Amino acid sequence: MDMTTAPGEDARPILSLRNINMTFGGVRALKNVSFEVMPGEVHCLAGENGSGKSTLIKVITGVYRPAAGAEIVFDGAAVSSMTPGIAQSLGIQVIWQDLALFPEMTVAENIAFQTLSGARPRFVRYPAIRKIAEDALARLGVTLDVDRPLKDFAIAQRQIVAIARALVGEARIVFMDEPTASLTQSETDHLLAIVHTLSASGVAVVFVSHRLAEVLEISSRLTVLRDGALVGVYPVEGMTQSRITELMTGRTFDQSVRAHDISRNPVVLSVQGLSRPGEFRDISFELRRGETLGITGLLGSGRTELALTLFGMRQPAAGTITLEGKAVRFASNRQAIAAGVAYLSEDRLALGLNQPQSIADNLVMASLNRILSGRLISPTKKRALVSRWIADLGVKIGQQEDAISTLSGGNQQRVAIAKWLATDPKVLILDSPTVGVDVGARAGIFEIVARLAEAGLAIILISDEVPEVYFNADRVLHMEKGRMAGWHDPRATTLKDIEAAVYA
């Protein structure tokens, strides 16, 4: 195990944990974990899904009580029994990935919520609430209309509201769980600037992110967990993404460019002059058999809108779509699926899968016609179809009847991909397939993509993370403000050049 001295050798940690153990149903979720954070430090907590990150945070915030022998020290004072109330009073705040905000309430009400709650009823003083919210936002250097309902704002602004609420709670240490998972690059840059502002003001930030480039940019140290155990604490200086990946997973991954020459392969999909007013204009490209075509660009570039049009969920105002030499004009996604076009949504939780339903039901929902016996679903055919794809994509499950919500993010995404592969598509559109998926699971997903392309499937890979398309696509289309801004061949250019073009 590697351990390094925290910044300021003589400084006292704001938070220190020793010998943290947690067991659920006979399974040890945390194994003798030690962890500490210095005042004003930006510290990354890294690990794959299931490594124990969330469990550790819940121990720190008093949601879980660790086994006997654990030590929790806050600002030099031992905490014998941490509870959520004690954690909040100490200034420990958590911003979970779902933010836990109230969309129907105003920005001011969300930010000042903790000042409104309590054991006794009290009158609500809106001028005071507004002042609290404006002061908190001012500390972050942000201006928002505090009287508007939160639901009117994009996810990036809601993240800021959650941070402002933490400041109202007199935060001394803030845990951020995947804060950039749903943000574009420009929004991410703004959020990271706010993290720097918090750090400069003396607030410690523990940053949890699967985006390793952000970890390297924002953190001074990182603590790595694997299978509930501490791997080590490392300085970020001199660290690389591949090294972090190795520490998190215990494995090495190939980061070489996979692009190959597909120019002689037959054209499967041809798009000419495709346009939708206000979304994209004059888009033309060809997609060949066995090709992975990467599409990247910032928010508003029209990537998802283009994908939805190819999938029949939106109608083009101009241009043509040709599938295997035949002009098509899909009136619905049903028609697109029947023709052999499949679309994996970027929003797995809301649109890609039905969380309360079983793994089996989710996997077959787009291919029910393949498991019918007469007019009824055949349980035998259904189980066979599910078993085939679960095995083929290496999905780790308990029982097919288990709810899809019981699976990790990476395994859920494999089921979502299997759902569309079960339709036997000619074209597979993957829209941000690794959102909310840890680094080890990401590598597995891209191995699947490469294998599908080698088998002849034509794939469109959409991502706002340039490295994903650079390392995994044969060609890269850069979209900007609804237009085609350029083409890139990963074999003939560098990652830095493409990132400069996209993020300029």
UniProtKB/TrEMBL annotation:
Transmembrane segments: none
SMART domains: AAA
Organism of provenance: Shinella lacus
InterPro entries reported in the protein's UniProt record: AAA+_ATPase (IPR003593), ABC_carbohydrate_import_ATPase (IPR050107), ABC_transporter-like_ATP-bd (IPR003439), ABC_transporter-like_CS (IPR017871), P-loop_NTPase (IPR027417)
Entry's family note: Belongs to the ABC transporter superfamily.
Gene3D superfamilies listed in its UniProt record: P-loop containing nucleotide triphosphate hydrolases
Start and end residues of each ABC transporter domain: 15-252, 257-504
Keyword line: ATP-binding, Cell membrane, Membrane, Nucleotide-binding, Repeat, Sugar transport, Translocase, Transport
Top-rank taxon, per record: Bacteria
A GO molecular-function annotation: ATP binding
Pfam families, alphabetized: ABC_tran
The protein, known as: Sugar ABC transporter ATP-binding protein
